[in-house]
Protein backbone atom coordinates (compact mmCIF):
# COMPACT_ATOMS: atom_id res chain seq x y z
CA UNK A 1 0.00 0.00 0.00
CA UNK A 2 1.40 3.39 -0.99
CA UNK A 3 1.83 6.30 1.38
CA UNK A 4 -1.00 8.18 -0.35
CA UNK A 5 -3.33 5.18 0.05
CA UNK A 6 -2.46 4.89 3.73
CA UNK A 7 -3.15 8.60 4.19
CA UNK A 8 -6.51 8.36 2.44
CA UNK A 9 -7.51 5.38 4.55
CA UNK A 10 -6.46 7.19 7.76
CA UNK A 11 -8.48 10.25 6.80
CA UNK A 12 -11.57 8.17 5.99
CA UNK A 13 -11.21 6.29 9.29
CA UNK A 14 -10.85 9.56 11.20
CA UNK A 15 -13.96 11.01 9.57
CA UNK A 16 -16.02 7.98 10.58
CA UNK A 17 -14.71 8.12 14.15
CA UNK A 18 -15.33 11.86 14.43
CA UNK A 19 -18.88 11.46 13.18
CA UNK A 20 -19.36 8.92 15.97
CA UNK A 21 -18.30 11.42 18.64
CA UNK A 22 -19.82 14.42 16.87
CA UNK A 23 -22.80 14.88 19.23
CA UNK A 24 -20.69 15.52 22.31
CA UNK A 25 -17.75 17.15 20.47
CA UNK A 26 -19.93 19.55 18.48
CA UNK A 27 -21.97 20.39 21.54
CA UNK A 28 -18.86 21.37 23.48
CA UNK A 29 -17.46 23.23 20.50
CA UNK A 30 -20.59 25.34 20.17
CA UNK A 31 -20.62 26.18 23.88
CA UNK A 32 -17.01 27.40 23.78
CA UNK A 33 -17.45 29.18 20.44
CA UNK A 34 -20.53 31.04 21.69
CA UNK A 35 -18.47 32.20 24.67
CA UNK A 36 -15.72 33.51 22.37
CA UNK A 37 -13.23 30.67 22.86
CA UNK A 38 -11.71 28.07 20.55
CA UNK A 39 -11.90 24.34 21.27
CA UNK A 40 -10.00 21.48 19.64
CA UNK A 41 -10.03 17.71 19.90
CA UNK A 42 -6.35 17.00 20.32
CA UNK A 43 -3.48 14.64 20.98
CA UNK A 44 -4.07 10.94 21.53
CA UNK A 45 -7.77 11.31 20.71
CA UNK A 46 -6.99 12.47 17.17
CA UNK A 47 -4.26 9.84 16.79
CA UNK A 48 -6.62 7.08 17.91
CA UNK A 49 -9.39 8.39 15.64
CA UNK A 50 -7.02 8.12 12.70
CA UNK A 51 -6.21 4.54 13.73
CA UNK A 52 -9.86 3.62 14.17
CA UNK A 53 -9.35 3.07 17.91
CA UNK A 54 -11.02 6.08 19.49
CA UNK A 55 -12.63 5.11 22.77
CA UNK A 56 -14.84 7.08 25.12
CA UNK A 57 -12.04 9.18 26.65
CA UNK A 58 -11.69 12.46 24.77
CA UNK A 59 -8.99 15.13 25.15
CA UNK A 60 -9.57 18.76 24.22
CA UNK A 61 -7.48 21.91 24.34
CA UNK A 62 -8.65 25.51 24.38
CA UNK A 63 -7.54 29.11 24.78
CA UNK A 64 -9.99 29.44 27.69
CA UNK A 65 -8.46 29.59 31.17
CA UNK A 66 -9.34 26.97 33.81
CA UNK A 67 -12.07 29.04 35.51
CA UNK A 68 -13.81 29.59 32.17
CA UNK A 69 -13.45 25.91 31.26
CA UNK A 70 -15.13 24.86 34.50
CA UNK A 71 -17.94 27.42 34.07
CA UNK A 72 -18.69 26.38 30.49
CA UNK A 73 -18.40 22.65 31.17
CA UNK A 74 -20.96 22.92 33.97
CA UNK A 75 -23.50 24.19 31.44
CA UNK A 76 -23.11 20.88 29.59
CA UNK A 77 -22.91 18.39 32.48
CA UNK A 78 -23.30 18.44 36.26
CA UNK A 79 -20.54 15.85 36.60
CA UNK A 80 -17.36 17.92 36.65
CA UNK A 81 -14.08 17.36 38.48
CA UNK A 82 -11.37 19.90 39.08
CA UNK A 83 -8.57 17.81 40.57
CA UNK A 84 -6.18 18.96 37.82
CA UNK A 85 -7.40 22.53 37.60
CA UNK A 86 -4.19 24.08 38.94
CA UNK A 87 -2.41 22.43 35.99
CA UNK A 88 -4.99 23.79 33.56
CA UNK A 89 -7.17 20.68 33.22
CA UNK A 90 -10.86 20.29 34.05
CA UNK A 91 -12.63 16.98 33.49
CA UNK A 92 -16.14 15.71 33.35
CA UNK A 93 -18.54 13.04 32.19
CA UNK A 94 -20.99 13.84 29.42
CA UNK A 95 -23.83 11.42 28.83
CA UNK A 96 -25.30 10.99 25.40
CA UNK A 97 -28.94 12.06 25.19
CA UNK A 98 -31.35 9.15 25.83
CA UNK A 99 -33.24 10.03 22.65
CA UNK A 100 -30.18 9.59 20.46
CA UNK A 101 -29.27 6.31 22.14
CA UNK A 102 -32.78 4.95 21.61
CA UNK A 103 -32.78 6.06 17.98
CA UNK A 104 -29.52 4.22 17.44
CA UNK A 105 -30.94 1.13 19.15
CA UNK A 106 -28.09 1.08 21.65
CA UNK A 107 -27.33 1.78 25.29
CA UNK A 108 -26.67 5.17 26.77
CA UNK A 109 -23.05 6.22 26.10
CA UNK A 110 -20.96 8.21 28.55
CA UNK A 111 -17.94 10.21 27.44
CA UNK A 112 -15.10 11.01 29.82
CA UNK A 113 -13.57 14.27 28.73
CA UNK A 114 -10.64 16.44 29.75
CA UNK A 115 -10.26 20.03 28.61
CA UNK A 116 -6.90 21.74 29.07
CA UNK A 117 -5.81 25.30 28.52
CA UNK A 118 -3.14 25.77 25.84
CA UNK A 119 0.08 25.12 27.71
CA UNK A 120 3.61 23.87 27.75
CA UNK A 121 5.25 21.82 30.48
CA UNK A 122 8.89 22.36 31.33
CA UNK A 123 11.27 21.16 34.04
CA UNK A 124 13.75 23.31 35.85
CA UNK A 125 17.18 21.66 35.87
CA UNK A 126 16.83 20.47 39.46
CA UNK A 127 13.06 19.92 39.67
CA UNK A 128 11.08 16.67 39.76
CA UNK A 129 7.82 18.43 38.90
CA UNK A 130 6.92 20.15 35.63
CA UNK A 131 6.28 23.88 35.58
CA UNK A 132 2.94 24.64 33.93
CA UNK A 133 2.81 27.66 31.66
CA UNK A 134 -0.42 28.64 29.89
CA UNK A 135 -0.27 29.69 26.24
CA UNK A 136 -2.50 31.57 23.82
CA UNK A 137 -2.10 29.74 20.50
CA UNK A 138 -2.81 26.22 19.29
CA UNK A 139 0.43 26.10 17.33
CA UNK A 140 2.40 26.99 20.45
CA UNK A 141 0.60 24.21 22.32
CA UNK A 142 1.15 21.60 19.62
CA UNK A 143 4.86 22.28 19.14
CA UNK A 144 5.48 21.52 22.81
CA UNK A 145 3.70 18.16 22.70
CA UNK A 146 5.70 14.96 22.89
CA UNK A 147 5.47 13.53 19.35
CA UNK A 148 4.09 14.60 15.99
CA UNK A 149 1.45 11.85 16.03
CA UNK A 150 0.12 13.50 19.20
CA UNK A 151 0.44 17.03 17.81
CA UNK A 152 -2.63 16.96 15.57
CA UNK A 153 -5.93 18.67 16.34
CA UNK A 154 -9.48 18.97 15.00
CA UNK A 155 -11.17 22.35 15.42
CA UNK A 156 -14.73 22.25 16.75
CA UNK A 157 -17.48 22.48 15.79
CA UNK A 158 -16.25 22.99 12.20
CA UNK A 159 -13.97 19.89 12.17
CA UNK A 160 -11.03 21.62 10.51
CA UNK A 161 -7.99 19.34 10.66
CA UNK A 162 -4.82 20.99 12.02
CA UNK A 163 -1.51 19.20 11.46
CA UNK A 164 1.41 21.67 11.34
CA UNK A 165 4.14 19.08 12.04
CA UNK A 166 3.29 16.23 9.68
CA UNK A 167 1.76 13.90 12.25
CA UNK A 168 -0.60 12.34 9.71
CA UNK A 169 2.26 11.31 7.41
CA UNK A 170 4.27 9.97 10.35
CA UNK A 171 1.23 8.02 11.57
CA UNK A 172 0.73 6.44 8.16
CA UNK A 173 4.42 5.55 7.89
CA UNK A 174 4.80 4.30 11.47
CA UNK A 175 7.38 6.95 12.31
CA UNK A 176 7.99 8.39 15.79
CA UNK A 177 9.41 11.91 15.79
CA UNK A 178 9.00 15.13 17.76
CA UNK A 179 7.33 18.39 16.60
CA UNK A 180 10.35 20.49 17.53
CA UNK A 181 13.79 19.14 18.31
CA UNK A 182 13.91 15.99 20.45
CA UNK A 183 16.25 17.81 22.83
CA UNK A 184 13.60 20.48 23.46
CA UNK A 185 10.82 17.93 23.83
CA UNK A 186 12.77 15.73 26.26
CA UNK A 187 14.01 18.75 28.17
CA UNK A 188 10.41 19.91 28.65
CA UNK A 189 9.54 16.52 30.14
CA UNK A 190 12.22 13.81 30.38
CA UNK A 191 9.56 11.14 30.89
CA UNK A 192 8.85 11.49 27.17
CA UNK A 193 11.97 9.43 26.53
CA UNK A 194 10.31 6.48 28.26
CA UNK A 195 7.08 7.28 26.45
CA UNK A 196 9.00 6.92 23.18
CA UNK A 197 9.88 3.38 24.22
CA UNK A 198 6.27 2.67 25.12
CA UNK A 199 4.99 3.94 21.76
CA UNK A 200 7.63 1.84 20.02
CA UNK A 201 5.84 -1.19 21.46
CA UNK A 202 2.26 0.04 21.72
CA UNK A 203 2.01 1.57 18.24
CA UNK A 204 4.79 -0.53 16.66
CA UNK A 205 6.48 2.66 15.41
CA UNK A 206 10.12 3.19 14.51
CA UNK A 207 11.78 6.03 16.42
CA UNK A 208 13.56 8.55 14.23
CA UNK A 209 17.39 8.44 14.45
CA UNK A 210 17.47 11.91 16.02
CA UNK A 211 15.03 10.71 18.70
CA UNK A 212 17.30 7.78 19.54
CA UNK A 213 20.34 10.06 19.60
CA UNK A 214 18.66 12.51 21.96
CA UNK A 215 17.47 9.72 24.27
CA UNK A 216 21.00 8.39 24.46
CA UNK A 217 22.57 11.78 25.09
CA UNK A 218 19.96 12.85 27.64
CA UNK A 219 19.38 9.54 29.45
CA UNK A 220 20.62 10.88 32.79
CA UNK A 221 17.90 13.57 32.62
CA UNK A 222 15.32 10.90 33.54
CA UNK A 223 16.69 10.95 37.08
CA UNK A 224 14.84 14.18 37.88
CA UNK A 225 11.47 12.53 37.18
CA UNK A 226 9.62 11.13 40.19
CA UNK A 227 9.74 7.38 40.79
CA UNK A 228 5.95 7.22 40.59
CA UNK A 229 5.85 8.67 37.07
CA UNK A 230 8.66 6.38 35.93
CA UNK A 231 6.83 3.39 37.44
CA UNK A 232 3.59 4.28 35.65
CA UNK A 233 5.30 4.64 32.27
CA UNK A 234 7.26 1.42 32.74
CA UNK A 235 4.03 -0.38 33.66
CA UNK A 236 2.28 0.92 30.54
CA UNK A 237 5.15 -0.36 28.43
CA UNK A 238 5.07 -3.79 30.05
CA UNK A 239 1.30 -4.02 29.57
CA UNK A 240 1.49 -3.52 25.81
CA UNK A 241 0.96 -6.53 23.55
CA UNK A 242 4.65 -6.57 22.56
CA UNK A 243 6.91 -4.95 25.20
CA UNK A 244 10.15 -6.30 23.75
CA UNK A 245 10.91 -3.52 21.21
CA UNK A 246 10.33 -0.80 23.80
CA UNK A 247 12.44 -2.54 26.44
CA UNK A 248 15.17 -2.97 23.84
CA UNK A 249 15.10 0.77 23.15
CA UNK A 250 15.40 1.55 26.87
CA UNK A 251 18.46 -0.69 27.10
CA UNK A 252 20.07 0.54 23.87
CA UNK A 253 19.79 4.22 24.84
CA UNK A 254 21.00 3.78 28.42
CA UNK A 255 17.67 4.75 29.98
CA UNK A 256 17.31 1.29 31.50
CA UNK A 257 20.62 1.84 33.32
CA UNK A 258 18.87 4.64 35.23
CA UNK A 259 15.40 3.20 35.83
CA UNK A 260 15.85 -0.59 35.77
CA UNK A 261 19.60 -1.34 35.81
CA UNK A 262 19.03 -5.02 36.57
CA UNK A 263 17.76 -5.49 33.00
CA UNK A 264 20.86 -4.36 31.04
CA UNK A 265 23.01 -6.11 33.67
CA UNK A 266 21.69 -9.39 32.24
CA UNK A 267 23.85 -8.87 29.15
CA UNK A 268 26.65 -10.94 30.63
CA UNK A 269 30.01 -11.09 28.91
CA UNK A 270 30.64 -14.47 27.31
CA UNK A 271 33.80 -16.16 26.07
CA UNK A 272 34.66 -19.21 24.03
CA UNK A 273 35.60 -21.28 27.07
CA UNK A 274 32.60 -20.66 29.31
CA UNK A 275 29.28 -20.82 27.51
CA UNK A 276 25.81 -20.29 28.85
CA UNK A 277 22.49 -19.08 27.60
CA UNK A 278 22.20 -15.38 26.72
CA UNK A 279 20.42 -14.34 29.91
CA UNK A 280 19.16 -10.99 28.55
CA UNK A 281 17.60 -12.47 25.41
CA UNK A 282 16.30 -15.42 27.42
CA UNK A 283 14.53 -13.07 29.84
CA UNK A 284 12.81 -11.18 27.02
CA UNK A 285 11.74 -14.47 25.46
CA UNK A 286 10.34 -15.68 28.79
CA UNK A 287 8.36 -12.43 29.01
CA UNK A 288 6.91 -13.00 25.54
CA UNK A 289 6.04 -16.61 26.33
CA UNK A 290 4.42 -15.60 29.61
CA UNK A 291 2.25 -13.10 27.72
CA UNK A 292 1.19 -15.89 25.36
CA UNK A 293 0.18 -17.99 28.39
CA UNK A 294 -1.72 -15.23 30.21
CA UNK A 295 -5.04 -16.67 29.10
CA UNK A 296 -4.51 -19.17 31.94
CA UNK A 297 -4.82 -16.30 34.44
CA UNK A 298 -8.05 -14.66 35.61
CA UNK A 299 -7.00 -11.15 34.55
CA UNK A 300 -5.12 -10.01 31.46
CA UNK A 301 -2.82 -8.25 30.99
CA UNK A 302 -1.16 -9.17 34.29
CA UNK A 303 1.49 -6.69 35.46
CA UNK A 304 2.79 -8.88 38.30
CA UNK A 305 3.21 -11.81 35.94
CA UNK A 306 5.09 -9.70 33.40
CA UNK A 307 7.39 -8.14 35.98
CA UNK A 308 8.24 -11.57 37.37
CA UNK A 309 8.92 -12.98 33.91
CA UNK A 310 11.17 -10.07 32.98
CA UNK A 311 13.10 -10.08 36.26
CA UNK A 312 13.16 -13.77 37.13
CA UNK A 313 16.89 -14.17 36.37
CA UNK A 314 18.25 -10.85 37.65
CA UNK A 315 20.13 -12.72 40.35
CA UNK A 316 22.37 -14.41 37.77
CA UNK A 317 24.99 -11.66 37.31
CA UNK A 318 25.77 -11.67 41.04
CA UNK A 319 25.87 -15.48 41.32
CA UNK A 320 27.70 -16.49 38.14
CA UNK A 321 30.61 -18.84 38.80
CA UNK A 322 32.93 -20.50 36.30
CA UNK A 323 33.25 -24.20 37.05
CA UNK A 324 35.87 -26.73 35.90
CA UNK A 325 35.33 -28.06 32.41
CA UNK A 326 33.89 -24.83 31.04
CA UNK A 327 30.62 -25.04 32.90
CA UNK A 328 28.92 -21.99 34.41
CA UNK A 329 26.74 -22.03 37.53
CA UNK A 330 24.28 -19.56 39.02
CA UNK A 331 23.63 -21.16 42.41
CA UNK A 332 20.92 -19.45 44.50
CA UNK A 333 20.16 -16.86 41.80
CA UNK A 334 16.49 -17.37 42.62
CA UNK A 335 16.94 -16.17 46.21
CA UNK A 336 19.32 -13.35 45.26
CA UNK A 337 17.02 -12.29 42.41
CA UNK A 338 14.01 -12.10 44.71
CA UNK A 339 15.89 -9.74 47.02
CA UNK A 340 17.08 -7.57 44.13
CA UNK A 341 13.59 -7.39 42.64
CA UNK A 342 12.08 -6.39 45.96
CA UNK A 343 14.63 -3.60 46.39
CA UNK A 344 14.16 -2.26 42.85
CA UNK A 345 10.37 -2.41 42.83
CA UNK A 346 10.20 -0.67 46.20
CA UNK A 347 12.42 2.10 44.83
CA UNK A 348 10.01 2.46 41.91
CA UNK A 349 7.10 2.76 44.36
CA UNK A 350 5.23 -0.34 43.31
CA UNK A 351 2.63 -1.41 45.86
CA UNK A 352 3.62 -3.73 48.69
CA UNK A 353 1.34 -6.43 47.28
CA UNK A 354 2.96 -6.23 43.85
CA UNK A 355 6.47 -6.25 45.31
CA UNK A 356 5.81 -9.29 47.50
CA UNK A 357 4.08 -11.21 44.70
CA UNK A 358 6.88 -10.63 42.19
CA UNK A 359 9.56 -11.52 44.76
CA UNK A 360 7.77 -14.74 45.70
CA UNK A 361 7.45 -15.82 42.06
CA UNK A 362 11.14 -15.16 41.42
CA UNK A 363 12.16 -17.05 44.54
CA UNK A 364 10.03 -20.05 43.52
CA UNK A 365 10.66 -20.10 39.77
CA UNK A 366 13.19 -22.95 40.03
CA UNK A 367 11.21 -25.04 42.51
CA UNK A 368 9.71 -27.26 39.81
CA UNK A 369 13.17 -28.22 38.53
CA UNK A 370 14.26 -29.22 42.01
CA UNK A 371 12.15 -32.36 41.86
CA UNK A 372 14.04 -34.00 39.01
CA UNK A 373 12.13 -35.84 36.33
CA UNK A 374 8.71 -35.63 37.91
CA UNK A 375 8.92 -38.19 40.73
CA UNK A 376 6.87 -35.99 43.02
CA UNK A 377 5.61 -37.37 46.31
CA UNK A 378 2.30 -36.16 47.67
CA UNK A 379 4.26 -34.27 50.32
CA UNK A 380 6.27 -32.47 47.64
CA UNK A 381 3.09 -31.47 45.83
CA UNK A 382 1.52 -30.16 49.03
CA UNK A 383 4.65 -28.17 49.88
CA UNK A 384 4.78 -26.69 46.36
CA UNK A 385 1.18 -25.52 46.67
CA UNK A 386 1.66 -24.28 50.22
CA UNK A 387 4.74 -22.24 49.31
CA UNK A 388 3.16 -20.75 46.18
CA UNK A 389 0.03 -19.72 48.07
CA UNK A 390 -2.08 -17.26 46.13
CA UNK A 391 0.58 -17.05 43.39
CA UNK A 392 0.13 -20.66 42.24
CA UNK A 393 -1.60 -19.79 38.93
CA UNK A 394 1.12 -17.28 38.08
CA UNK A 395 3.83 -19.75 39.10
CA UNK A 396 2.38 -22.27 36.65
CA UNK A 397 2.68 -19.66 33.87
CA UNK A 398 6.18 -18.51 34.84
CA UNK A 399 7.54 -22.04 35.09
CA UNK A 400 6.16 -22.98 31.68
CA UNK A 401 7.37 -19.72 30.10
CA UNK A 402 10.87 -20.27 31.50
CA UNK A 403 11.49 -23.11 29.04
CA UNK A 404 13.31 -21.55 26.06
CA UNK A 405 15.39 -24.51 24.96
CA UNK A 406 15.66 -25.17 21.23
CA UNK A 407 15.78 -28.90 21.94
CA UNK A 408 12.23 -29.92 21.04
CA UNK A 409 12.51 -33.27 22.80
CA UNK A 410 13.61 -31.62 26.05
CA UNK A 411 10.92 -28.95 25.76
CA UNK A 412 8.23 -31.58 25.18
CA UNK A 413 9.44 -33.57 28.19
CA UNK A 414 9.31 -30.49 30.45
CA UNK A 415 5.80 -29.61 29.26
CA UNK A 416 4.63 -33.17 29.83
CA UNK A 417 6.17 -33.26 33.31
CA UNK A 418 4.53 -30.00 34.28
CA UNK A 419 1.20 -31.18 32.88
CA UNK A 420 1.50 -34.16 35.21
CA UNK A 421 2.31 -31.91 38.16
CA UNK A 422 -0.77 -29.76 37.53
CA UNK A 423 -2.93 -32.88 37.35
CA UNK A 424 -1.45 -34.07 40.64
CA UNK A 425 -2.22 -30.72 42.22
CA UNK A 426 -5.80 -30.83 40.97
CA UNK A 427 -6.32 -34.36 42.22
CA UNK A 428 -4.90 -33.65 45.67
CA UNK A 429 -6.79 -30.37 45.85
CA UNK A 430 -10.07 -32.21 45.33
CA UNK A 431 -9.19 -34.66 48.08
CA UNK A 432 -7.60 -32.36 50.63
CA UNK A 433 -8.53 -28.71 49.98
CA UNK A 434 -4.91 -27.75 49.28
CA UNK A 435 -5.77 -24.08 48.84
CA UNK A 436 -6.57 -23.93 52.57
CA UNK A 437 -3.71 -26.11 53.78
CA UNK A 438 -3.78 -26.07 57.59
CA UNK A 439 -3.05 -28.51 60.42
CA UNK A 440 -5.84 -30.73 61.69
CA UNK A 441 -5.88 -28.79 64.97
CA UNK A 442 -6.00 -25.03 65.40
CA UNK A 443 -4.25 -22.93 68.03
CA UNK A 444 -7.15 -23.02 70.49
CA UNK A 445 -7.33 -26.82 70.33
CA UNK A 446 -3.56 -27.11 70.74
CA UNK A 447 -3.62 -24.99 73.90
CA UNK A 448 -6.52 -27.02 75.33
CA UNK A 449 -4.85 -30.39 74.68
CA UNK A 450 -1.46 -29.34 76.05
CA UNK A 451 -2.83 -27.21 78.86
CA UNK A 452 -0.77 -24.15 77.90
CA UNK A 453 -1.52 -20.53 77.18
CA UNK A 454 -0.61 -18.36 74.19
CA UNK A 455 3.11 -18.25 73.47
CA UNK A 456 6.01 -19.57 71.46
CA UNK A 457 5.19 -23.22 72.18
CA UNK A 458 1.82 -22.91 70.45
CA UNK A 459 3.53 -21.72 67.27
CA UNK A 460 6.03 -24.57 67.42
CA UNK A 461 3.23 -27.10 67.88
CA UNK A 462 1.28 -25.58 65.01
CA UNK A 463 4.28 -25.84 62.67
CA UNK A 464 4.89 -29.45 63.74
CA UNK A 465 1.32 -30.41 62.85
CA UNK A 466 1.48 -28.48 59.58
CA UNK A 467 4.59 -30.42 58.52
CA UNK A 468 2.82 -33.66 59.46
CA UNK A 469 -0.15 -32.56 57.36
CA UNK A 470 2.11 -31.81 54.39
CA UNK A 471 4.08 -35.04 54.68
CA UNK A 472 1.20 -37.43 55.33
CA UNK A 473 -1.99 -35.66 54.31
CA UNK A 474 -5.02 -35.19 56.59
CA UNK A 475 -4.51 -36.95 59.93
CA UNK A 476 -7.92 -36.51 61.48
CA UNK A 477 -8.47 -34.98 64.96
CA UNK A 478 -7.74 -38.14 66.97
CA UNK A 479 -4.46 -39.03 65.29
CA UNK A 480 -3.42 -35.37 65.22
CA UNK A 481 -3.95 -35.20 69.00
CA UNK A 482 -1.91 -38.36 69.52
CA UNK A 483 0.93 -37.05 67.34
CA UNK A 484 0.82 -33.72 69.19
CA UNK A 485 1.01 -35.37 72.64
CA UNK A 486 3.86 -37.61 71.51
CA UNK A 487 5.79 -34.63 70.11
CA UNK A 488 5.17 -32.63 73.30
CA UNK A 489 6.37 -35.46 75.51
CA UNK A 490 9.54 -35.93 73.46
CA UNK A 491 10.58 -32.30 73.78
CA UNK A 492 13.52 -31.55 76.02
CA UNK A 493 12.56 -29.58 79.16
UniProtKB/TrEMBL annotation:
Protein name as catalogued: CCA-adding enzyme
CDD domains: HDc, NT_ClassII-CCAase
GO biological process assignments: RNA repair; tRNA processing
Pfam families xref list: HD (PF01966), PolyA_pol (PF01743), PolyA_pol_RNAbd (PF12627)
Signal peptide annotation: none
Keywords attached to this entry: ATP-binding, Coiled coil, Magnesium, Metal-binding, Nucleotide-binding, Nucleotidyltransferase, RNA repair, RNA-binding, Transferase, tRNA processing
MF annotations from Gene Ontology: ATP binding; CCA tRNA nucleotidyltransferase activity; metal ion binding; RNA binding
Species of provenance: Microlunatus phosphovorus (strain ATCC 700054 / DSM 10555 / JCM 9379 / NBRC 101784 / NCIMB 13414 / VKM Ac-1990 / NM-1)
E.C. no: 2.7.7.72
Alphabetized SMART domains for the sequence: HDc (SM00471)
Enzyme class: transferase
InterPro entries in UniProt: HD/PDEase_dom, HD_domain, HDIG_dom, NT_sf, PolA_pol_head_dom, PolyA_RNA-bd, tRNA_adenylyltransferase, tRNA_CCA-adding_enzyme
PROSITE patterns tied to this protein: HD
Domain HD: 279-385
PANTHER family named in the record: MULTIFUNCTIONAL CCA PROTEIN
Coiled-coil boundaries: 404-431
Necessary cofactors: Mg(2+)
Amino acid sequence: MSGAERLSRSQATALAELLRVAPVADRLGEVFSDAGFRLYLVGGSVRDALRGELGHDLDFTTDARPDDIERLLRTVTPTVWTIGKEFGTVGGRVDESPGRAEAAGGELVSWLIEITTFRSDAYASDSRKPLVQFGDTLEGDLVRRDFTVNAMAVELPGKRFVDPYGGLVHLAEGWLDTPGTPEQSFSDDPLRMMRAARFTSQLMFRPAPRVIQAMTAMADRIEIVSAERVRDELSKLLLTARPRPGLGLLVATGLADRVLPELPALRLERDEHHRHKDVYEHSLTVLEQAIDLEERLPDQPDLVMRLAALLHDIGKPATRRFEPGGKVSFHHHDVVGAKLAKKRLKALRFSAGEVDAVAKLIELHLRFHGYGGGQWTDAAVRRYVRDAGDQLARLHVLTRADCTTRNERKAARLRRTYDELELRIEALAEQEELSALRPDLDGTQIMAILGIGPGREVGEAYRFLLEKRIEEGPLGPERAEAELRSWWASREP
